Fold this sequence. Notes:
The structure holds three protein chains of three kinds.
Chain A: E1 5-9, E2 12-16, H1 22-28, E3 52-57, E4 60-65, E5 76-78, H2 82-96, H3 106-120, H4 149-156, E6 162-165, E7 172-175, H5 189-193, H6 203-206
Parallel strand pairs in A: 1-5
Antiparallel strand pairs in A: 1-2, 3-4, 3-5, 6-7
Chain B: H1 18-31, H2 46-57, E1 62-67, H3 70-74, H4 77-85, E2 93-98, E3 110-113, E4 118-122, H5 130-137, E5 146-152, E6 164-169, H6 172-178, H7 197-202, H8 207-215, H9 218-228, H10 240-249, E7 256-261, H11 270-277, H12 279-293, E8 297-303, H13 307-322, E9 338-344, H14 353-360, E10 384-388, H15 389-401, H16 403-406, E11 417-424, E12 430-435, E13 438-439, H17 440-447, E14 457-460, E15 466-469, E16 474-475, H18 477-483, E17 491-495, H19 501-515, H20 521-539, H21 546-560, H22 564-569, H23 571-579, H24 581-588, E18 602-605, H25 615-619, E19 625-627, E20 634-636, H26 646-650, E21 656-659, H27 664-667
Parallel strand pairs in B: 1-2, 7-8, 7-10, 8-9, 11-17
Antiparallel strand pairs in B: 1-3, 3-4, 4-5, 5-6, 11-12, 13-16, 14-15, 14-17, 18-21, 19-20
Chain C: H1 19-30, H2 35-45, H3 49-58, E1 70-75, H4 78-82, H5 85-96, E2 109-114, E3 126-128, E4 131-133, H6 141-150
Parallel strand pairs in C: 1-2
Antiparallel strand pairs in C: 1-3, 3-4
Amino acid sequence: MEERVEIIVDDKTMHAQPHISLLQALRVENINLPSLCFYPHLEPHGGCGLCLVEVYDKDRWQPQQACLVRVEKGMRIQTRSRRIMELRARAARLLLKRGPFKKTGIEDLLHSLINEYHNSIKSKLDSGFTLQNNCSKKYSHTGCILCGLCVRICRQVGQSQLVLLGRGEKLRVGLAAGNEDHSCGRCRACKYICPTGYIDKDVRQVFTSSLYK
Amino acid sequence: MNMNEFRPPARHTYMVSASVREELRKKQQAARTVYQPVEFEERVSLERLAAEGRSSLFPNISRINVGTATCGLAAGAQYLSQNLAERDWDNTAMVVNVGCLGACYAEPLIDVRTAEGRHYFYGRVDRSSLWSIIKTAAGEPSNKNLWAVAQERQTGVLQGIEDLELIQIENTGFKEFFQPQLRRISGRCGFLNPSSINEYAAMDGYLALEKSLFQLSPQRIIEAIETAGLRGRGGAGFLTGDKMHIAAESPDPVRFVVANADEGDPGAYMDRALLESDPHAILEGLIIAGYAIGASQGYIFIRHEYPLAIKMLRKAISSARKVGLLGENILGSGFSLEIYLVESAGAFICGEETSMLQVMENRRGDPRRRPPYPARQGLKNHPTLIDNVETLANIPWIIRNGADLFRTVGTAQSPGTKIFCLAGDVERMGFIEVPLGTGSREVVEKIGGAAGPSVKALHIGGPSGGIVAYKPFAMDYESVSEAGAIMGSGGLVALGPNRCVVDIARHMVNFMVDESCGKCLFCRDGLPELEYRLLDLCLGKAGPEAIEEIAGLSRSISDLSLCGLGQTAANPVLTSLKDFLPEYQAHIKGRCPSVNCKPLIDFEINLTSCRDCRACYLVCPSDAVKMRAGEKRYIVDQQRCIKCWACYETCPFDCIRITSEEFAWKNG
Amino acid sequence: MNEDNAVNPDAFSANEQMAVNVLNKIQAENGYIPRELLVEIAERLNITEAQLQELVSFFKSYRIRPAGRHKIRICYGTACYARGAALINDRFNEVLNLNDSDTSPDGLVTIEKVYCVGACSQAPVIIQDEKIKSRIKSFQVPLMVDDLRKQP
Lengths: 213, 668, 152
């Protein structure tokens, strides 16, 4: 194991193992950032936008997703600045629109992140941040936040049957072989790893989209 | 020809069967001398290539250059070129399909070079003016559609339009378009046959490669690029020399060079123009770059929307390989490089280098985090130098003419020239090359020929660039950033007073929504929300808090996206909010100041100038133009009107008026 | 599927180790990418079919179903948009009863949006079966469709 290096988190000095994911290092130090798409044994993805920190780079604070940042010697980090809280609240609001979620607690977490920020700002009108999201946009896959955990775990332990199809707004998780019988190894890794409880049945019933129908 | 077999019909007999006519046509065509460039099939010296090229570039008969790049084809050059080529010239002229001279507004553009080195430029050629071209080529210059006449300063020397002296100007705009320009990189475009390696060699092509291979070490080349201060022309403006340096110093012996020709910015087509008009220049740049960093393989990543450019590149690669300028042991120097084409299939994000590399490794084009930069760890984790097409085209110029000469134009921070694509509400559109740091006024008003007040805003750098108010500023990397935009690849769209800035910003965000890869939350879900909010503005449904919300959301999108696409996706919104806040505010009140947003405008017919031609009545698709009895009889039924602009576009007397009022009177 | 559709072994020369190049070729030959060929390419390139599916779905121009008899591409670049590309698109939608699909119910036309074909000076531009038509006005659209209907 490499020698632990010094990092400065919220003006406090602590030690962390270098070159690992910052999110992981903070968890070891009992600083728990909210995060939905991180799993220690999988390649970090940066899909949920909640594990935010500000990293001091050159001459300014740069918001980053902690899971994607590697620990380096002497780096300075903030985890609770107002900017972070605002961005986190915005991310939470975007995620909420993909709800409702089947797993309990997710929505409470997201609501608490929004409220936390909303209560902290003084003049609520000028901030351009509204508690309710009055945008009429609706998504087709309710409950899936496209964190990509299932796809990544399927690639690692399963049979590489889950695929990310399309891009942008139309991005969705699908089954490579469609609903054919041999399509899935049924290891259920995806079911256990899904953070929102979207995969609660047989994957072939959950993921109905495939490239070829 | 056997006379028993084929007898031409007598002059007065027209009763010829179809089969005979077809036979006749074929025989006549076979008898015509259609110009075919000589193609060498084996290794030859550059001198021989150049000699052959000179004989076709400066022949002792007339040479008719027809501009048949995509813009020319769109204007109908194919027909003209075919018509001219099928003519029996009897060895007095040859017809050559060349690329784009840059004056896209003048397409189809035909340049007739007579044997004594005089060039007759014909702009906006149509069928009716073909005769004057034929006459000119036959030695009797004709003036119909003639735009300018120029003489080669020294007959048989032509590196670009600077080598021509204008001696007669029939169209002043043509001169104004070219005068402020400095065509270094694009000079050959429109004069040489892009599918002929000989003609490229005759215009000093591949001399830089020869010089690099035999007189310079790779280190000296990188030094030259570094001294020249060449910055990446693709958008970010990173120093090319630095990238080469990093790649060349890597301990990994396997290295790659990649030309980024995935030019997705709507409104920017300089890469297309270069590849279609002068593909060998890019090839030469790529080979030199490959030699400088010690690469063994090169790739050209090109978007499939450019079929002609792909065709030209394929041709260029195969002819360069045949004559020994590519492949094993280039020019006998011992250096070998293979170049492959990779065709993208329609994804803007693949212009982002990490995304491009993912696709080249057969994976989804989701970008990855930088660092590590591709110059350290790129394709298959080997050092990879990725350069934009225009950047590569600069490299041979620098090697040939030296870094000091390169720095004589441009600013200290951004030396050299830059190609911009001028479009939108200007008189003369086209792709232009000016020294970096040239004023925006000079570009838009002098070259573009727009009257100052008729331009409200400039949209610089495509969908990731900015919409800034039209004001004088210098066009170089720093000043453009100061003005709030980014240089991008150099798209430059002038927006007139009746283009709605909010709508254009929404369109840009819509483009980005379509093109986002979907990996990061803010880019995937934040951009559609941003688009919806902008759409609400355009529909007149937005509340007073909308602008703050839009600004906040835009900032978070640029803060938290992983790649360059996401980080810059909200730029058009952020920049236009700064310069055109009143326009956004007007939309909240339900008024579109530029009378552009459909739900906020009304069509009216100005009956005083109406001449009762019924055009609007006939063209209206929704029967919204009603006819009443009596003299002043047309009226627009606002309930039925679908705001398709058909009447406005059709009316020959400009009687249709479009208005937009604040909501107050509607609600009150 | 007839034998002509089988993947040409030459397609896997060193030049075409890139899946996109092979897919482009197949799309050009068939008009779309049949599943059978996708499986075959995945085997030849030694990658999983899932990975290839991700790649295919990532790009806009790949089709997984056969297209209409005619293909009309509407340029949505800035210059074309500013000069009314959206109006043209709306008119096509209306005339062809597209209803959010890209191919008309009678299989006559497939409409595609493309971003900038690089002919901005001639905006708005559409490409009808590889032929560029420039300076289109929206009221020409029904006439164009009629012309296509009359064509064999």
